[in-house]
Please model this.
Amino acid sequence: MTTAATSLTLRALFSRTATRLSLDQPLGVTAGLSHAAKALAAVSASRVTRGVTLLVVPTDKDVEQMTADARFFYGAYEGASESGIERAVLPRVLTLSQVGQVLRNTEGKAMPAECFGGEESNCAIVSCCQLKSVLAEAVDAFYSVLDRYTLADITRNKSALTSILHFHRPALA
Model:
């Protein structure tokens, strides 16, 4: 009974803290926050948004630390088992954080047409279509270009991006 009460108290504390600091809102940039605060922000935001929450960190060491912190906060919030936590918080080490790899990991398999899906196609010309191989080649070319660039390449103008996208660090009250 003590563990359950402690868990509920900890969950409430994290939830209040995240709300007070506006960490429970999707943040574009968490620069300036500690690893633990970034992990709390990511887990808190993931609870109020649909889909995948992606947190990009600069080094493999940061991936390990962020994964450990995010798993701690996720477990505290959700009361999940160790295996549930490991399935929910997945570290992804990206080689030089290639833009193409980030898109593949967050968006899944590219599907430029219905016939690229895993299910049976309703397309009338699927049995004789020559377009699928052309589209597959185009998708490969698309990712080939994106793989030539890293996240660092496309975010060198951080201050301009931050002001245009209105990303800001929550004020600590």
In short: Helices lie at 2-20, 35-48, 60-78, 82-88, 99-107, 131-146, 151-154, 158-165.
